[in-house]
Q: What sequence folds into this?
């Protein structure tokens, strides 16, 4: 919870706002910091205070009144928040994105699309914390993602995208039975033919792995927990039986890259691409290995292709900036890092490299 103060409106402010009646006897929360200027006071500060309560204090005695106040005073509020939350998530500002989506959940409980946005956000956070080797937090975020995927599938009529994304989530962690169930449901209720084709391909791929003895999942979990060597042993055994599964090679490359085995990582990621895993994450990982191996032109080709697929991915931009520095193109590198700051003003990597470039 942020620091909130409460104000009372004068009694003559009592009025009808559509189906909502403004009650001056109920104090309104206002978000203020130490630099608060009374001249800046307005509805935005009240809404900010209310959104904080929507996100973090749902047992507040005036919760329902504040929710109705916010929705009545700003009819477009939910649409604005949704756009802002998605934008924050795209630039990996996970803390603010989470706060926005939690506020939306408070404003409109049971909204399956908000639940899906939170599921996707927590899934991304799990991956980010795993990269930082913060295993406890990564597993906690993964648990949150599972919970919100479940919530996103409880609406009527059902939200097709919830099942599709849940399928990919379970597929990534090797829970093939759950992945299959979600993809099959999507094929029943989904209407987007391109996404239906992707679901069919995922099912076909999963069908090849239904008889696995758990090697894939054990490998993924081992690497997630920092046991890369164990993960490599298990995924290598998996690939002996299923050498045509691209995400098996991705897992192998991921483990080698984390250990600094650049050549082995590059081989595995290249194999993943050959088998159809043309995803920004695969390209970005391959680019890092290529860069470390001295193949700067190859690294740039992979990063540019990844950025074309995800133009606002600051991780890819950061690697492009580092690569430009290695190529002696400092002005170009500075441009990449400055672009990152437009999306994320406090990005520590960009700030650090810009300091080096002075």
A:
């Amino acid at each position: 919870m942020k620091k909130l103060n409460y104000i009372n409106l004068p009694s003559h402010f009592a009025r009808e706002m559509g189906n909502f009646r403004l009650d001056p006897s109920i104090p309104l929360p206002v978000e203020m910091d130490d630099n608060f200027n009374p001249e800046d006071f307005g509805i935005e500060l009240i809404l900010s205070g209310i959104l904080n309560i929507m996100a973090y204090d749902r047992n507040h005695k005036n919760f329902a009144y504040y929710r109705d106040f916010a929705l009545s005073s700003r009819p477009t509020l939910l649409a604005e928040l949704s756009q802002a939350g998605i934008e924050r998530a795209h630039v990996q500002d996970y803390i603010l994105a989470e706060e926005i989506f939690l506020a939306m959940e408070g404003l409109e409980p049971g909204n399956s699309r908000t639940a899906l946005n939170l599921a996707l956000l927590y899934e991304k956070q799990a991956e980010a914390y795993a990269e930082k080797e913060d295993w406890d937090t990564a597993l906690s975020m993964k648990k949150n993602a599972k919970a919100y995927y479940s919530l996103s599938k409880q609406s009527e009529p059902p939200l097709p995208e919830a099942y599709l994304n849940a399928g990919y989530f379970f597929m990534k962690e090797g829970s093939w039975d759950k992945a299959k169930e979600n993809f099959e449901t999507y094929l029943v209720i989904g209407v987007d033919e391109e996404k239906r084709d992707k679901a069919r391909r995922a099912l076909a791929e999963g069908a090849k792995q239904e008889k696995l003895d758990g090697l894939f999942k054990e490998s993924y979990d081992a690497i997630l927990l920092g046991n890369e060597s164990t993960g490599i042993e298990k995924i290598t055994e998996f690939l002996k039986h299923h050498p045509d599964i691209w995400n098996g090679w991705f897992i192998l490359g991921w483990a080698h890259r984390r250990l600094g085995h650049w050549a082995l990582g590059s081989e595995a990621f290249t194999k993943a691409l050959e088998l159809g895993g043309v995803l920004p994450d695969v390209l970005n990982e391959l680019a890092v290995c290529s860069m470390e191996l001295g193949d700067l032109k190859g690294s740039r080709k992979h990063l540019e292709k990844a950025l074309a697929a995800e133009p606002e991915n600051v991780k890819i931009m950061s690697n492009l900036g580092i690569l430009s520095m290695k190529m002696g193109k400092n002005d170009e590198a500075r441009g990449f890092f400055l672009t990152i700051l437009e999306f994320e003003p406090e990005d520590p990597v960009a700030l650090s490299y810009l300091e080096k470039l002075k």
In short: The chain is about 70% helix and 5% strand.
